[in-house]
Amino acid sequence: MSVDKMAEQTMEANAVVSYLKSHPEFFEIYADVLADIFIPHPHGGHAISITERQILTLREKSRLLEVKLAELLQFGEENDGISEKVHRLALTLLAARDATEAINGFVYNLLEDFSVPHVGLRVWGIDGADPAQSEFAPVSDSLKALAENLTEPYCGPHVLDEVQAWFGEASPRLRSFAQVQLVTDRTAGLLVLASEDPQRFYPEMGTLYLKRVGELLSAVLLRTIPLGKKVD
Questions:
Q1: CATH number among 3.30.70.260, 3.40.50.1000, 3.40.50.1100, 3.30.450.40, domain 96-222
Q2: Pairwise CA distance, residues 122 & 105, whole Å
C-alpha cells in the first residue's frame, strides 16, 4: 500500500471518529446496525460484537485500576511502617542526655529497627567529645567539604576512600551507599548507610525519610554544641 493511500485511510478514519464524537445520537438511531457489526477479538480467535469489545475494554481498565489501587495500598502500608520507625527513633533521641548517648541510640536504632546493614557516622565540632569514640574521630578537610556541599542526601555506589574505610572488613563487599549531611548552626557531620546490595541505595530512590532522619540527629546534636563555638 502506498504512503498516499495510507494517509488517505488515516484521514478517513479520523473523520469517522470526529463525526461519532460530535453526533452521539448516531448510536441511538442506528442501534440495530451496531448490533450487527463484529470486530476481531483483541486476543485472537472469533469475532465479537462492539458491545462485547466494550465490555472487555472495561474489564481491562478495571483490572488495571485494581492493580494500581493495590500498589497504592502497599505504598501506604510501607510509609506507615517507616513513619512508625522514625517516630521511635525520635523518641530515642529525645531521651538521650548527651551527644554520645544520642549517637549510640541512633546507630543502634538504624541497625535494628531499620535493618540497615552498616552505619557509618562522623561528627565534628562537639565540645568535650571523646576522640577515642569512632563517631568523633578526626576527618579530612575533603570529607568536610563533601558534607558541606551535600544539601540533599546522596544515594549510589560511590563514596570517598576515607568513608569506605569506616566499615572495616566489610568495606570491600559494600556496593551501595546513602550519605546524609548533618547540620546544626553549621555543617557538623556526615551519616553514611551502606549495603552489600547494589539496589539498597540507588540514585532514583526517594530521600525524604533519609533527610528527616538526618534532621532529627542534627537537632539533637544542636543541644550539645555551644552556638558560635567551633571545635576542630
A1: 3.30.450.40
A2: 15
Instruction: Give, in order, the Cα–Cα distances in Å from 170 to each of 124, 162, 164, 189, 220.
Output: 24, 14, 9, 22, 29
Given a contact cutoff of 8 angstroms between Cβ atoms, the answer to whether 130 and 100 are in contact is yes
Average pLDDT score over the chain: 80
Q: How far apart are CA 175 and CA 169, in angstroms?
A: 14
Boundaries of every domain in the chain = 27-83, 96-222
Look up residue 79 and give its three cell numbers: 510509609
The 10s digit of each residue's pLDDT in 100-130 is 888 888 889 988 888 899 999 998 876 666 7
Q: What does the block give as the cell for 17?
A: 471518529
Identify the pLDDT of residue 158. Answer: 94
Inter-axis angle of helices 208-222 and 99-112, to 10 degrees?
160
pLDDT at 228: 36
Mean pLDDT of 32-46: 64
Query: Cα torsion at 40, 45, 46, 52 (round to 10°)?
Result: -60
CA distances from 222 to 23, 105, 196, 206, 218 (A): 69, 16, 32, 26, 6
